[in-house]
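Chapter summary example: a protein plus 4'-deoxy-4'-aminopyridoxal-5'-phosphate.
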Amino acid sequence: MSSANSMSLFFSEKFKSLVPYTPGEQPKNREYVKLNTNESPFSPSPRAVKYAAEAVREANLYPDPDSTELVGRLSALLGTNKECLTVTNGSDEILNFAFMAYCDTSHHAVFPDITYGFYKVFAKINNVPYEEIPLSDDFKINLGDYIAVNKTVFIANPNAPTGIALSPIDIEKIVASNPDNVVIIDEAYVDFGAESCIPLTKKYKNLLVTGTFSKSRSLAGARLGFGVACPEIINDINTLRYSTNPYNINRMTMAAALGAIEDEDYTRKNLKSIIENRAFAKGELLSLGFTVTDSAANFLFARHPDVDGGTLYSELKRRGVLVRHFDGERISDYVRITVGTREQMEILIEKIKEILTLARLK
Ligand code: PMP
């Protein structure tokens, strides 16, 4: 990314103070045990790879702007109707559409102070006033803060980077108490141990649930997100989609996603491994004296009393393990560690033991 002071003379006034979202590092200079961007450590399903390779042969033709086949198959998998689903270029795209569609000066956005960092950027680029509600000291969402809040609510469930989830029963209370605003539930990590709110979209006209193939379906590089809601909300999103980029899902991604959907057993097997590896890594971290949040996602959020988050991040990086460190006021003591393979988790723990031993010698 270019830095803010290298902007041209021509950059619109309205974007001059925009601070872009900072994605996790994708270094090319060295092979890392890469536990910093919540990707899957497993390759896409072989069927996804095969279908995508076949699809490139027809890449001279534009893709289907309605992703008809994909929407049909995905809606069946998610237990909804095709009128209640739309697909986007990663779930980041539908989250941006939600800020565009449902927030303005009379519908402010609201989200937790500690959550997915992109929400704030989406609010700013769309010139939307927003409020951040502090999580409790143990990083939980206080349900009462969102009851009848009368703003457009964005909640990642499980939340990031904490991994802590709310139950659909609690989310229903938020949705039911804000009938004049849309509630957006970002389920990027739901498959790793939380319960989906998709069934609630049949009951409420003001609920949009977003999801992604980036995590549990190993397709972060293909960029496929989706949204489930009542047909009217889906039409709103499609209006914005058609007004920005009707061909937002390319042929290879569409084909890869169909392969992944057909290979649900592969997804389930990988989910089982990640959940087991999360339990293993969490147990090891706890026994080393870490505090670890109760994560229902494919990452752990952890801190150690003897080593601050920034030091842990850089010492791990020196040893070939990449994790994510956030500078935020309340979370700078923590690191977020993506759950990878058992072997990757063993390397992580071994390197952490080394770092803690050195810290104690000091
Ligand atoms: N929501 C949350 C909470 C995330 O962490 C991410 C991944 N960075 C996304 C949405 C977006 O993921 P994608 O665009 O790959 O679907």
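Key point: The two ends are 37 Å apart (CA to CA).
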